[in-house]
Design a protein that fits this description.
The protein has 149 residues and is α/β, with parallel strands linked by helices. It has helices at residues 2-29, 47-62, 92-101, 110-116, 132-139; strands at residues 37-42, 67-71, 86-87, 90-91, 105-109, 128-130, 144-148.
Length: 149
């Protein structure tokens, strides 16, 4: 009886080891799907909305997506170096800076900046000034999802 019990336990353990090996082999054999890019198009400087957009973008970065934030109209004000929009115990400037350090690309629309009388010197470090080619390249890049605020 003891021998039969040990035999059954051994067969069960061996079966589980084989199943785990086959499962692991299946997972490594599958080709990795390319991750879609995310473009977050902003037009508001509303702190709650802007903060939520940064949070969504940060989660996307952590999951392996390339993330670009396009600032248009009023949202450009958040990227102006002298502006401080308080949010919680920090500012949107600090959140945006950390977002860029985590790997996000932030582009301020060049046409909107021109209408607002702003130049590259007015922006936070790391924010790019958008040109038509740069912006269109991001907007129409294959496999890009666009989230607009």
């Amino acid at each position: 009886m003891k021998t039969r019990y040990l035999m059954i336990v051994s067969v069960c353990i061996l079966s589980m080891c084989c199943a785990v090996s086959v499962w692991a082999a299946d997972k490594t054999a599958l080709p990795q799907e390319p991750m879609d890019s995310l473009l977050i198009a902003m037009s508001t400087d509303n702190t709650a909305i802007f903060d939520a957009a940064i949070t969504i973008g940060t989660v996307a970065l952590q999951r392996g997506h390339a993330v670009t934030m396009l600032l248009r109209v009023d949202s450009i004000k958040v990227a102006v170096a002298k502006n401080n929009y308080p949010v919680g115990d920090t500012t949107l400037s600090k959140r945006l800076s950390a977002f860029m350090k985590a790997g996000a690309t932030v582009i301020a629309g060049g046409s909107c900046m021109k209408q607002m009388g702003l130049t590259q010197k007015d922006l936070m470090e790391g924010v790019m000034v958008g040109t038509p080619d740069l912006v269109m390249g991001k907007l129409f890049k294959k496999d890009t999802k666009i989230l607009s605020y």
